[in-house]
Design goal:
By secondary structure, the protein is an alpha/beta fold. The protein contains three helices and three strands. The chain starts with a strand and ends with a helix. InterPro entries: P-loop_NTPase (IPR027417).
């Protein structure tokens, strides 16, 4: 799969809301995207593994995105 959408969220709690809202909107349209939320304060390993499996939508805090890129 190819990444088709990226969203940046600066407030910790909003990143999960953003991810779930996007998933809900996709379900409403019968789409089944793979999403990934990237954020600091958690190990990078699991987040990198999910990215390597392929995702369609990424929601990330700027700091973690900078760490990964």
């Amino acid at each position: 799969m190819t990444l088709v959408f990226a969203m940046f969220s600066t407030v910790g709690r909003l990143r999960f809301w953003d991810t779930h809202t996007i998933e809900w909107l996709c379900v409403a349209r019968n789409l089944k995207p793979r999403t990934q939320c990237l954020y600091g304060g958690a190990p990078k390993g699991p987040q990198l593994r999910e990215l390597s499996r392929g995702v369609d939508i990424v929601v990330a805090t700027p700091g973690r995105l900078n760490d990964i890129l």
